[in-house]
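seq/struct pair 1
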Amino acid sequence: MFGRLTHYAFDAVLISAFLAGVKRSTGLTPSFQSDKISESRELKQWVDKYLGMGEWVMDQSVAILGSTSYFERKR
């Protein structure tokens, strides 16, 4: 039970980080139109926090990978 919950949580973080990467590289973001999903303010706040978590994971990953000698920045 705990293993499955951990697996789902990790998958959710990976999806959120993937969406953050897409946003940064292309400028595309998920379209959450209020009339199509829900009028719930709590749900909108949860989605914002979820996507914000992906941004944080992306920031931390870039910082950690950028500080190692295994990766180099090419522009």
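seq/struct pair 2
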Amino acid sequence: MPALRASLLSSLRPSHLFRSPFFRRPLVRTTFLTLGFVATCAPIAIFLNDNFAQLMWVNGPSMYPFLNTDYNSTTTKDVVFVNMWNPWKGLKRGMVVALWSPYNPEHMMVKRIIALEGDEVITKRPYPLKKAIVPTGHVWVEGEHPENTRKSLDSNTYGPVAKSLIVGKVRAVVWPWAKAGVIQWQDYRGSPRVQQDKHVIPDQYHFE
């Protein structure tokens, strides 16, 4: 009995399995090699996707016409490249960012930063106050749609957003091809509704 068990275990060793006639078939061998490659690379891909960069579909009309410029005429969505390395560092007014919704922690959205900590913002409806001061560790984000109050859920709805909700900076459009290219956020001229650095915050309290 021990000899039979040893014989069976020996026959099930990987080296014996891959030398069997079944595994000598090109299709079977290729399939198993592919599955092994995917099993090896999948954790690496997940790690990179969660910590370095990812592609993201832009949903809805809130960033129209800056993104999803064909929203009114087609169902095509822009696909953007999001840099997720150090997402809270070096944030500037005008940057387009991907962030988790304060209302729904499972929903990721794309907005533009229009004010930083210490700035004073003249708000839009439905925000309950006429003015808001962006506190330490927060930014003020808004959509681009001309009918902002109706087409975009942004800081005018939920107030200043914690930087910790930002997952990355949107760096480029990769689809559709006709619009592909680097996002020139530096061309942003600022909002007349924002008074910059109205309330100066000491450097030691800045959130990076």
